[in-house]
Amino acid sequence: MVFASLIFLYVFLPLQLLAYFAARSLAQRNALLILFSLAFYAWGEPIWIVLLIGSSAADYVHGRIIEATRGTHWPKLALISSVVLNLALLGLFKYGAFACGVVNDALSTSFAAPQFALPIGISFYTFQTISYVVDVYRGELPAQRSFFKFLLFVSLFHQLVAGPIVRYADIAAEIEGRRHTLADASAGVTRFCVGLFKKVCIANVAGQLVVQTMAKDAGAISVAEGWFGLLMFSLQIYFDFSGYSDMAIGLGRICGFHYHENFDHPYVARSATEFWRRWHISLGSFFRDYVYIPLGGKQHRPYRNLLIVWGLTGLWHGASWNFIFWGLYFGLLIALERLFLHRLLAALPAAISHVYLLFAVVLGWALFYFEDLDRLGAFLRLIFGASDQPGFDPALASMIEANALWLGLALLLCVPVAPIIRARLLGWAERGQGPMLAGTALALFNLALLLVATAMLVGGTYNPFLYFRF
Amino acid sequence: MTSEPTKAAQIVNVALFMLALVGLGGLLVAEFIQRSPTPELSIEENRALAVFPEPSWDALIEGRFAHGVDEWIADHFPARDRFMAANFWLEQHRGFRSEQAITVYAVTIDNDAELEPLDDELGLDELELDELELDELELELDENDADADVSRSEGILVVDGRAMQLFAGGPKGSRKYAAVINEYAEALRDKVSIYVLIVPTAQTFYLPESYAGRVRHEPPNIAATYAMLDSSVKTVDVVAALADHASEYIYFRTDHHWTGLGAYHAYAGFCEQAGFEAVALDSMEMGTIAPYRGSLYRYTHDEKLRGRPDQVEYWIPPVAAEVVRVTREGRRTLVSEGALLRTQSKGYGVFLGGDQPLLVARTGNHTGRRALLVKNSYGNPFAVYLVSHFDEVVIVDYRKFDASVLALIEDYQITDLIFLNGAITANARFHIARLARIMKGPKKPRRTNE
Fold first, then answer.
1. B195 and B55 in a common domain
2. Domain ends where: B39, B57, B86?
3. Per the domain annotation, does A326 fall within a domain?
4. Which of A233, A364, B18, B37 is most deeply buried (CB count within 10 A of its CB)?
5. Within this chain, do residues B60 and B182 fall inside the same structural domain, yes or no?
6. DSSP letters along A9-49, please?
7. Residues of B with CB below 8 A from A458's CB?
8. What pLDDT shows up at residue B429?
9. Inter-chain touch A6–B16, beta carbons under 8 Å
10. Does A85 reside within a domain?
11. Residues A331 and A374 grouped into a single domain
């Protein structure tokens, strides 16, 4: 199941919220969350629920072994075993085909990869459980004694499918006991509606425009269309991902969980280093705490560490060379920034570093989009003027004109407007217009976001046929 | 200065949200409780709406049940029409559109489909769905042809308040189509005159110059197909017949079909080949059905199209014809009243009353010539004009007809066999396969050797 769907919004969510708040005790509420989360996952992937539960059980046991045998050599073995198991799982399902391809190319063999559909969320929950086992090993937190509470941590539907990667340490306390306040519920509702709007009304529309430009053959579009498409993809991926995180955080807050922010307006950044402190924060910090620092961080062979971390970051995103290049591309930029670029950019006006970063990131998305390296090459040649395609196309002008209002909104939402809007709304309330009015305005605003997104989801089900089909 | 909304505001916020969720969710449940066991039809979308899936252990495990429920919800969401209308309004107002703006809707129209728009009262049980055994198609497929197998048209372009399908045919389509026609030519050599009309779509006449380099073109494709036909086959240059009249109302603006006027000009071209004198247009009585918003409007919901609906003009030939409709129910042949022009229709269905597997029109003519027209929906307005010249006109819709055309030719003593296709379907795999299949009809079931 996904958040941006009619069944989630109007069947799953109301049932879950009603049941949750009808229940009185924390134990009941936790149990309900587990049940609903498993149902959420099983709805789309009935078979792989077994994998999820099995993987959770394995890491639960590993955690307890580590704790029970502290002071011996067993914890280290358990740690290695857990990490190996998790990575093997991920490797098998996500990277099997890719690995076979690499080996075959290198050694001229012809191994056949096992064909598995990728279980949803596996990249997220394996990382979550790895972080748990490592933290227990390091003594940073006690192992969870209750399997059900551990399962809750892993399966919680808010963050299971698309993040943020929630560390056990961050919600351990809230699993044991949390407060449900009206302020949290209201803020959660607002956050959820905003996220839904971003996903359905911005990201999905951007996606349509990508299909009409960048997705086409590079020999069939103009240079301008290539750039426009790339820009649209940059918008799509940001609003899709951050919208999802918003929804996750909002849903969590309604139920008393406080997940960490995952996106902080990354497109206002002025360097690649800063960008990665604002984009998919939970992933960046995972790699920092569990790979970069253990390898030696800044102290011991920093550039080698950067290479490894960014190569892995790229690889995490997809089982294909282009993703690895994308990761290394950022690793390179960050290394260059560390070496001299930061100082250079600091000496120049801020606008220049903004432009530098936007250009670098947008170009990076081209690497991210094309899994087929030939197509990537053709596209890069197109956008840098090294092809025979025309520079511009009148159809593009029509397309931009026909989407001008939406485009303006999307670009506006890339910068932190929300605080400004809030301050205005509430300042308006302060000035005697009545707090009730401002509050109603907020509620109606959220309702509008919800209904507009619903209309577009319903619109997405429009499926006409030229000739009658039954 | 407060940084949080007040408590009252928070309550309203949460309450409204829950109200929306529970309200619409509740209405959805009500829909579920009141659901009908038989599929309901959507005229707008030209299909049956999804039926709630049967829960079974297998379906649950394989995810089919979940998928079926998602589809059911999509088709039965409360106030679906209103939300849909809101969605189209939002889509059309994401920016600004001038008259000259070129809008391309990346809609895939699947031409590999079977039947015609549900314009009239045909019930579900009258429609048959035959299985197609593609391996019976005795054509050689060129494995080295880099041209992709085309059965889908690549989008809808709207400009100047007119919509058109974008053509995506190619040499492979030409070869396959010509091969099938040539089989007929071989089987009917020296017995029957064969004519082929491939009709271009509006793209050929109304595509903006600036877009010309981005699409495949129909005239060369049609010419290539014609060039591969047997020399005994008479081809009608419909492109030339229409080109002189492009400024007239020969294509609908909101539908993928041509108009009665467009079909008339092709009919005039056909008459030249067949040795007839075409009946003058102004000598025929005319009728109009308005407003009409056709298929391409339904696909795009473009505002410019909605604002300028079409009208369906039809001309009544001076020769009266008695038309019967022949359908098969199991082994029984049912003959019922048919029509050349069904004037109570609300749109394109006025021509022949929609698509019938087999219509037979008997006139009072004594020309000694009897025609059989093998067509899809493009042939409907054309068929109407034929009655002025033949003793009998047999009209076969190759998508619905599933017996033998050669047998029909025998039974009705046909002298003139006419094939009419739109350029897109003349390149479409399914359509070409159907034409091949109905030559002799479906093969008898093979006896197994085991």
1. no
2. B86
3. yes
4. A233
5. no
6. IIIIHHHHHHHHHH--SHHHHHHHHHHHHHHHHHHH-TTTH
7. 74, 77, 80, 83-84, 87
8. 82
9. no
10. yes
11. yes
pLDDT exceeds cutoff 60 at B404: yes
Cα separation, A132 vs A138, whole angstroms: 10
Among A residues 39-98, those touching chain B with beta carbons less than 8 Å apart: 43-47
Rounded CA-CA distance A62/A238 in Å is 36
Residue B363, helix vs strand vs coil: strand
pLDDT of residue B336: 80
Which amino acid makes up residue B149?
D
Quick one: pLDDT at residue B371?
A: 96
For residues A93 and A194, membership in a common domain is answered with no
Q: What is the pLDDT of residue B112?
A: 57
Q: Measured between CB atoms, which of B15, B47, B80 is closest to A468?
A: B47
Q: Three-state DSSP class for A90?
A: helix
Nearest chain A residue to B9, by CA: A439
Contacts of A212 in chain B (CB under 8 A): 104, 106
User: Could you tell me the residue range of the domain that residue A405 belongs to?
Assistant: 184-412
Confidence (pLDDT) at B116: 42
| pLDDT of amino acid B110 | 66
Same domain for A257 and A159? no
Nearest to A443 among B1, B12, B109 (CB): B12
Which pTM value belongs to this model? 0.86
Task: List all residues of chain A from 240 to 269 with a beta carbon under 8 Å from chain B.
Answer: none
One-character DSSP codes across A319-347: SSHHHHHHHHHHHHHHHHIIIIIHHHHHH
Band (pLDDT 50/70/90 cuts) for residue B111 is low
**Geometric angle at alpha carbon B15, from B10 and B21, rounded to 5°:** 130
B42, B60, B86: which is the final residue of a domain? B86
Which pLDDT value is given to residue B138?
Answer: 40
Measured CA to CA, the distance from residue A469 to residue B40 in angstroms comes to 12
pLDDT tens digits along A257-315: 999 999 999 999 999 999 999 999 999 999 999 999 999 888 888 899 999 999 999 99
Task: Look at residue B1 and tell me if it is in a domain.
Answer: no
Facing B95 at nearest CB: one of A10, A15, A401: A401
Strands B41-42 and B47-48: antiparallel
Query: Which pLDDT score is estimated for B118?
Result: 40
Looking at every residue in chain B, the average pLDDT score rounds to: 85
One-letter amino acid for residue B252 of the chain: F
- pLDDT beyond 70 at B383: yes
Domain match, B25 and B82 both: yes
pLDDT confidence of residue A108: 81
One domain for residues B57 and B189: no
As for the ipTM of the complex, it is 0.90
Residue A215 contacts B, CB cutoff 8 Å:
no
Mean pLDDT of chain A: 90
Q: Same domain for B20 and B125? A: no
Report the catalytic residues of A. 317
**Does residue B4 form part of some domain?**
no
User: Does one domain contain both A81 and A64?
Assistant: yes
Count up the domains in chain A and report the number.
2
CB atoms A439 and B25 under 8 Å: no
One domain for residues A321 and A240: yes
Q: Kindly state whether residues B274 and B392 are assigned to the same domain.
A: yes
End position of a domain, from candidates A178, A195, A214:
A178
Give the model confidence (pLDDT) of B170-197 as tens digits.
Answer: 888 888 899 999 999 999 999 999 999 9
Of A146, A178, A210, the residue at which a domain comes to its end is A178
For residue A176, how far is the Cα from the chain centroid? 27
B95 in any annotated domain: no
Query: Cβ of A219 under 8 Å from any chain B Cβ?
Result: no
Tens digit of pLDDT for each residue in B227-283? 999 999 999 999 999 999 999 999 999 999 999 999 999 999 999 999 999 999 999
pLDDT at residue number B44: 76
User: Same domain for A202 and A266?
Assistant: yes
Classify residue A419: in a domain, yes or no. Answer: no
A224/A356 same-domain check: yes
Report the alpha-carbon distance of residue B249 to residue B264 in Å, rounded: 11
To the nearest whole angstrom, how far is the Cα of B52 from the nearest Cα of chain A? 14
State which residues form the domain around B178: 103-440
Which among B248, B266, B161, B259 is positioned nearest to B208, based on CA atoms? Answer: B161
How many angstroms separate the CA atoms of A202 and A243, rounded?
9
SS3 of B151, please?
coil
Residues 399..418 of A with a Cβ closer than 8 Å to B: which?
399-407
pLDDT reported for residue B43 = 74
Å from A194 to nearest chain B CA?
Answer: 13
